UniProtKB/TrEMBL annotation:
Domain (HTH tetR-type): residue spans on this chain: 10-70
InterPro entries given in the database record: Homeodomain-like_sf, HTH-type_TetR-like_transc_reg, HTH_TetR, MT1864/Rv1816-like_C, Tet_transcr_reg_TetR-rel_C_sf
Keywords: DNA-binding, Transcription, Transcription regulation
DNA-binding region per UniProt: 33-52
PANTHER family per the UniProt record, alphabetical: HTH-TYPE TRANSCRIPTIONAL REGULATOR RUTR (PTHR30055), HTH-TYPE TRANSCRIPTIONAL REGULATOR RV1816 (PTHR30055:SF243)
Family matches, as SUPFAM superfamilies: Homeodomain-like (SSF46689), Tetracyclin repressor-like, C-terminal domain (SSF48498)
Gene3D superfamilies named in the record: Tetracycline Repressor, domain 2
Protein name per UniProt: TetR/AcrR family transcriptional regulator
Lineage, opening ranks: Bacteria, Bacillati, Actinomycetota, Actinomycetes, Streptosporangiales
Amino acid sequence: MTTRRDRLREATVREISETARRILVEQGPEAVTLRAIAREMGMTAPALYRYYDSHSELLRHVVGDVYTELTTELQAAIARVPHDDMSGKFLSVARQFRSWALGHPREYALLFGAPIRGLDPDEQADFAEECARQFGWTFMALFLELWQKKPFPVPPDEELDPDLLPQLRRYREERLGVSLPLGVIQQFLKCWVRLQGSVSLEAFGHLGFALDDAAPMFELMLQEIAPPLGLTYSPPDKK
């Protein structure tokens, strides 16, 4: 049974996380300090240590919460497409990923930009890492579903780059834990590099030298990666 004290603690932890994210969005990652959070909440910085052991742990919870929000939106985008429409699922999740990134540039930078000062990579980080895995699995699960329903052509192991082969095998066995040909893993990574690379360039403002509207270029990228997966590209609905 949850006690009143437990509920108050949960509410305070939630408020701390929400305050940290608000500071992140409004002022940038360098402004997310314990002192700033405490000031916003009318607390003292030492009092925050009753809820988080360190600044790094707090940041990791913010990272985890943001990953969870993004994953929820991606899964909702997939759920809006008919179950057997694999092309629609891939296009929908890719477009939602871009849409979220452009709508949440600070949060996107937190997840996919340069490492933030104070976010200790050696500190225990089960929550953030698990949330990140759930995000990544959203895309890998689609590849797995597609491969099971309609396998697409992939090169055999002996035709893969010998320098890439052991890396693909390690990624499959240590990170994914799935039984897939290495050619499928390679195709997944190729698509992810193009998708995230395209979104990151736009979200970080690196396409402005040439493009005022990068949406057509993004759609061109989707149009090119669809055929190797046996998918059919269709343009987005005009609103």
